[in-house]
């Protein structure tokens, strides 16, 4: 009888530890997603200032600016939990931002403008922090996914509704390409 009671207690302790580990992993993934969301918001807030600064020098590039604003609005309209949709929208926005930065190469006065230089530096800082946030999120998602799929924790995950997380990644190869600007 003590053996059976001991086995039941051990199984109960394992279920409790596995459940708590899954909760911790889920919370880490949610925290990591929040970090990405914060960096994307910072980038989205910076875009109008960058566009206005560049507009003064490159008024004839109206189509490029309109595209960036449209893509920014589309990226912000993606539902919060749609990791794949947000990744795709942000990839397109990043490519369009690359075109705006590339425009600066054609306008020496713009490159020398302190406001533009500060905005560009801020954007580069945000992009670096965004990369770190993406890596952190993907690591947290990986850890959760391993626990959700590994035996025997997958039994507990299935019973309590824990699900795998999608990775935040660029799925369109064209989004990885270096943008080109033609005059």
Automatic annotation (TrEMBL):
It is a single-pass membrane protein. Keywords: Membrane, Transmembrane, Transmembrane helix. Gene3D superfamilies: LemA-like domain (1.20.1440.20). InterPro entries: LemA-like_dom_sf (IPR023353), MamQ_LemA (IPR007156). Its main location: membrane. Belongs to the LemA family. This is LemA family protein.
């Amino acid at each position: 009888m003590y053996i059976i009671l001991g086995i039941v207690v051990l199984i109960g302790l394992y279920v409790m530890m596995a459940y708590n580990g899954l909760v911790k992993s889920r919370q880490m993934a949610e925290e990591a997603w929040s970090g990405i969301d914060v960096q994307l918001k910072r980038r989205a807030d910076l875009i109008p200032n960058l566009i206005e600064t560049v507009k003064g020098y490159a008024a004839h590039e109206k189509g490029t600016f309109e595209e960036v604003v449209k893509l920014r609005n589309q990226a912000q309209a993606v539902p919060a939990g749609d990791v794949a949709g947000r990744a795709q929208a942000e990839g397109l926005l990043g490519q369009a931002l690359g075109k705006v930065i590339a425009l600066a190469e054609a306008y020496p006065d713009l490159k020398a403008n302190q406001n533009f230089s500060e905005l560009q530096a801020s954007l580069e800082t945000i992009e670096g922090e965004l990369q770190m946030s993406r890596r952190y999120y993907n690591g947290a998602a990986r850890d959760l996914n391993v626990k959700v799929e590994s035996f025997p924790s997958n039994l507990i995950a299935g019973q309590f509704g824990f699900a795998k997380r999608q990775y935040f990644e660029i799925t369109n190869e064209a989004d990885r390409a270096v943008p080109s600007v033609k005059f």
